[in-house]
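Q: How would the structure tokens look for this protein?
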Amino acid sequence: MKAKIYEQFSLRENLNEAETLLATSHGVMFLSDKKGNDWYELQKGFSANTLKIVFDENGVINSASYDASTLWPQSFSLAEVDVIPESFDIRSRGDKWVFNGKKIIERVYSAAEITEQAEAMKGSLLATASQKISPLQDAKELGIATDAELAQLKQWMLYRVLVSRVDTAQGKEMTWPEVPTDVA
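A: Here is the predicted structure in token form.
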């Protein structure tokens, strides 16, 4: 089966009397795609055996389900597909997959996107290290640090320096330092 594609859903403004009542009394929102297809009516025609995917203008898959009623494609497009890559997991998120207009494929990240992800990882690792260092540093400065705490402080400070030196522009070639283990 060829994938059925419904482009760019948005909130529908021209509601009939019954829809207006539902919208005002129960907060129901009505969507339609670019061609005017109503979201709730479309759901009735979907097969229970096909995967429905919600994706953005770049094809990046936002969510997926065999049950269309669990999806909300506002500001996204939707496709009904029956061919799914073996390693595709409908629970996975994080833009690992894209829909290319015909099928689901693994996303290939640009060098800039890889660097951006690495910068985010670096920031997160540095924040974690700083959180670990702060109370240990306080204990040292107050003169109440144990030998084990001083050893941990040294490990975490070294780790933070090593993380700060990671060149995120190296792409997939970069390696992260090993996270310190707690010293007993």
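Strands lie at 4-6, 10-11, 31-32, 51-55, 61-65, 77-81, 97-99, 104-106.

Residues 11 and 99 are 23 Å apart (CA to CA).

Upvote if useful.
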